[in-house]
């Protein structure tokens, strides 16, 4: 009789151990699922940042290649999502054409999924500001310095960027991501 009592007790104890193991396993799987979702968001953030770098580099090259008209690139309003640039830029020339094409790149026109443009960052905007006015006066010869910013809607909340490009366009500014580059345009007349 003692033997049958111990056997039953041991069987119940094993069932309890299995239940505890399943609970621990469940929490582990939930943790892994949470980690996987955060990794996917990080992958999207990394992809968007790499796209932003390419778009920023594109405008920097356009500005350098048209250095004599660099001041024509300066914009008071963000370029890209929400602007009034046409989808076809063939009728435009010079800085206006470059800005129009850059706007379309920021809107994702380089890649389509059905009728949607998906080739850029989410709600991408670009800003070009004059940091230092060029001065060709003999003896001064100050080059022009222009700042190019690319802003987009991030997936993860971080600290608010100090740059103002796209500020207030994404709800909570902690989701706004911005990268910048300053371009110095020399003055050939001063050489």
Q: How many strands appear in the DSSP assignment?
A: 6
For the record, give the distance between the C-alpha atoms at the N and C termini, rounded to a whole number: 108 Å
Computed over alpha carbons, the radius of gyration is: 28 Å
Structural class, by secondary structure, is alpha+beta
Strand content: 15-25%
Report the mean per-residue pLDDT as an integer.
86
What strand line-up does the widest sheet have? 1-4-5-6
**Judging from the principal axes of the Cα atoms, what is the shape?**
elongated
Helix content: 40-55%
Give the SSE order as H and E letters. HEHEEEEE
Low-confidence stretches: none
The total count of helices amounts to: 2
Main β-sheet description: 4 strands, antiparallel
